[in-house]
């Protein structure tokens, strides 16, 4: 039966309080983010549910806060890159390609309903070209 091996070897769920602590730490505390990830590698892509469909990973928190150091650390460990992180990090080519293929992504919302444009602006000077591109495309 397909998938049955995974069901047999499925790891235990992470403790919710640990996931929340990791996501909160990743907003701005690199040392604590590193400690928690070393303690539990499964936190890397774990998602905290703030309620009402507002889900956030540690990388998502670092991204909307403009925390490049934490975002790059998490990416170096294998975190899943998304459009919001790419915008914050100033990855213009990635953003242009996604918007070309999926134009409606220009108005997508990330954690806490934060827009793609606001993620780009959180990236500061390095994300200026992404901000300019998004604004020319009508992002708000």
TrEMBL record:
Gene3D superfamilies: Ankyrin repeat-containing domain. This is Ankyrin repeat domain-containing protein. It comes from Rhodocytophaga rosea. It comes from the Bacteria.
């Amino acid at each position: 039966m397909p998938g049955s091996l995974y069901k047999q070897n499925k790891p235990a769920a992470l403790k919710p309080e640990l996931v929340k602590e990791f996501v909160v730490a990743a907003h701005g505390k690199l040392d604590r983010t590193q400690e928690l990830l070393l303690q539990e590698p499964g936190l890397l892509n774990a998602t905290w549910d703030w309620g009402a469909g507002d889900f956030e990973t540690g990388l998502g928190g670092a991204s909307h806060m403009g925390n490049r150091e934490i975002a790059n650390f998490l990416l170096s460990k294998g975190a899943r890159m998304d459009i919001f992180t790419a915008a914050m990090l100033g990855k213009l080519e990635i953003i242009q390609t996604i918007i070309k293929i999926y134009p409606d992504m220009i108005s997508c919302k990330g954690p806490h309903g934060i827009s793609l444009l606001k993620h780009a602006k959180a990236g500061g000077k390095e994300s200026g070209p992404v901000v300019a591109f998004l604004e020319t495309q009508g992002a708000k």
